[in-house]
Design brief:
By secondary structure, this protein is of the alpha+beta class. The protein has 4 domains: 72 residues; 144 residues, Glutaredoxin; 299 residues, no CATH class; 42 residues. 35% of the residues lie in helices and 25% in strands. The chain contains 17 helices and 29 strands. Strands 9, 10, 11, 12, 17, 18, 19, 21, 24 and 25 form a 10-stranded mixed β-sheet that branches. A 4-stranded mixed β-sheet has the order 4-3-7-8, covered by helices on one side. A hairpin with a 2-residue loop joins strand 5 and strand 6. The longest helix is centred in the last third of the chain and has 35 residues. The chain is globular.
């Protein structure tokens, strides 16, 4: 491929000046200049001299082509540096010790947007190959060419089973409009293992152009993170804490099963956490019972020794299920005995409830009492659709998150040098209700005045990073049977996330007598029949907390979207057609006429 002119030209045409490409084109230019000189002066050059020239030319070309492939210096002239490999990506690729083959299934008759996505993917793979010690090759396969009409459905199901998800597109043909499946994904093979990658992002809140741009931005992250998983020798440990009436294994099954491809997933009590090998990530999801001082100490010390923590806490006791028995229920604070622990780490979860204009809908019987029940969807302000922050790689470009009875979250100074980042919040139209309070379905018929929803972007999820001090460093723990010499007092590279809603990772469960419980997908809403971004969000959370190489930072890559002004284009279409057709012809005529006039004048002077 490195001998191909088109290969090097495609790199330069992107706006990248590569020293290797420059040497390549200089070498090609010199060869043609030399051949031209030989052709012009062939009568004057002896065969022996011509042979020496050919030998030196051949050696020179070999050196140029070899160096053009091995040199790494390049200038990315694009304003957003879209073709510059990040340090994290280079470090991951350099650790690859085996050849990599990438089967790309985005091929065939593609619309311009998908054609651009394909070009960006192949260009990124070429860039990765430049930095890798082992070859990284791409094979482009059109699923329609790989199959016949008889086995096409079976092949498509096989691809989907491997994780390459299809999307349907409408195409206009001579026979009319047809719907065609395309596979904007790839399977990466390395050392007998394979990993599926899907490049197309589909966020219902964005237009097709914006989703395509987000897909291009994430190409490097998707490929590099897959390569990192394939080259990993062991999985990180992920543990869900049990023993305080937390979410049970069925309620977190969807997230746990998805995470099991990257983590060794387990469910542990505090006593087991003390005696077993500490997990890389500990999840404390929606506890309902109070924590003992001993349990708090065990969690604190796991954190001090390097475990990363995820707290999903409901500080207010209320349930939508309790409303099914009547029109009202009471919401009151829940004492979990962890406020001092969280406060020490820089977090405070408030005992209030959020109401948000941007919310889910629930089915409510709107028929008169004497008529047959008729259920219609109505807004339920206690189930906000939470907004991921667009300023952090964990939450960038993700769909809204489904929630239920959410509280607000404050950050405090804490003990240590802690950096805090809000990564999940309410919409700009929310308010807080203090508890104890009555929660009533009557809010649907008599909603609060719109002007009361005047608090924007209330924090619900916060990331804490930095140096943390133990909450037990200055305490006597003899009554717990612990010697102070056993305490680790600080961690210098701690990471912790706190969310003021325990249900964010909970999937709905259907329990059947005598059969295995059945769970719905995480984030799925039965009323709107939409799947919100809960699972993708928390998979990013898990990967960020376990990422010590900075691979997640690749999700922060920003490729500026440059769309044509369709109104201006329509208004000035004739002008631009005229400019693009007439002006080149005029330029040829002007320069040709000027050249002819100059040559004619020269001949007149010479003759005279």
């Amino acid at each position: 491929a490195w001998l191909s002119i088109s290969e090097h030209f495609s790199s330069v045409s992107r706006g990248v000046i590569d020293l290797g490409d420059t040497l390549y084109f200089l070498g090609i230019t010199m060869v043609f200049l030399l051949l031209s000189m030989i052709s012009i002066r062939k009568v004057r050059i002896s065969g022996q001299k011509l042979g020496r020239i050919g030998l030196f030319t051949g050696l020179f070309l070999i050196l140029v082509f070899v160096f053009s492939e091995s040199l790494r210096f390049r200038l990315d002239l694009t304003s957003d540096k879209r073709y510059t490999m990040t340090k994290a990506a280079r470090e991951v690729v350099k650790t690859i010790g085996k050849p990599v083959t990438i089967e790309l299934f985005l091929a065939g008759e593609l619309q311009p947007g998908f054609r651009k996505l394909q070009q960006e993917i192949t260009g990124k793979i070429r860039d990765l190959d430049r930095y890798s010690k082992s070859p990284v090759r791409v094979i482009i396969k059109d699923p329609y060419d790989e199959t016949t009409a008889g086995n096409r459905d079976e092949y498509f199901e096989e691809l989907a089973g491997k994780g390459v998800l299809p999307t349907d597109v409408r195409q206009r043909t001579e026979q009319g409009t047809i719907t065609r499946l395309i596979f904007p994904g790839a399977i990466i093979h390395m050392d007998g293992k394979e990993e599926a990658v899907n490049f197309l992002k589909h966020n219902p809140g964005f237009s097709a152009e914006v989703n395509l741009n987000h897909s291009i931005e994430s190409i490097e992250y998707e490929i590099v993170s897959a390569l990192r998983r394939l080259s990993a020798t062991q999985k990180s440990g992920l543990a869900f804490l049990q023993g305080h009436d937390e979410l049970n294994p069925y309620e977190v099954r969807d997230l746990a099963e998805t995470a099991s491809s990257l983590f060794d997933v387990s469910f542990v009590t505090a006593d087991e956490l003390e005696t077993q090998e500490r997990p890389d990530i500990l999840v404390i999801a929606d506890p309902e019972l109070s924590f003992s001082e001993k349990d708090k100490f065990i969690i604190d010390q796991a954190f001090m020794q390097g475990s990363r923590l995820i707290w999903l806490i409901d500080p207010v006791q209320v349930s939508l299920d309790s409303l099914s028995l009547g029109m009202t229920t009471l919401a009151f604070p829940r004492d979990l005995n962890i406020n001092d622990l969280l406060f020490n780490y820089g977090a405070r979860i408030n005992t209030d409830l959020l109401q948000d204009v941007v919310c889910l809908q629930i089915l409510v019987n709107t028929a008169p009492s004497t008529n047959r029940p008729e259920f219609t969807p109505q807004p339920w302000y206690y189930s906000p659709l939470l907004t991921p922050s667009d300023q952090h790689p964990v939450s960038r470009h993700l769909n809204l998150l489904q929630s239920e009875f959410v509280s607000s979250l404050d950050t405090v100074a804490g003990a240590g040098k802690i950096h805090k980042t809000v990564i999940l919040s309410s919409s700009p139209y929310a308010r807080m209700v203090r508890t104890p309070a009555e929660v009533s379905l009557g809010i649907i018929d008599s909603p609060p005045a719109r002007e009361l929803f005047n608090i924007p972007n209330i924090p619900v999820g916060v990331l804490f990073e930095g140096t943390f001090y133990s909450a037990f460093r200055n305490r006597m723990l003899n009554n717990l049977g612990i010697q102070n010499t056993q305490i680790r007092n600080e961690t210098t590279s701690g990471k912790m996330m706190v969310f003021a809603d325990g249900s964010l990772i909970a999937n709905k469960v259907r329990y059947h007598q005598g059969r295995e419980p059945e769970n719905l997908p995480l984030g799925y809403d039965r009323v709107s029949q939409q799947t919100f971004g809960n699972k993708e969000y928390f998979m990013n959370v898990l990967q960020y907390l376990s990422d010590d190489m900075g691979v997640m930072e690749l999700r922060n890559r920003n490729v500026q979207l440059r769309l044509l002004d369709k109104v201006k284009l329509r208004e000035s279409r004739d002008l631009w057609v005229l400019i693009s057709t007439v002006i080149p012809i005029l330029m040829v005529l002007v320069f040709g006429g000027a050249y002819y006039a100059i040559r004619r004048r020269q001949w007149k002077v010479n003759k005279s």
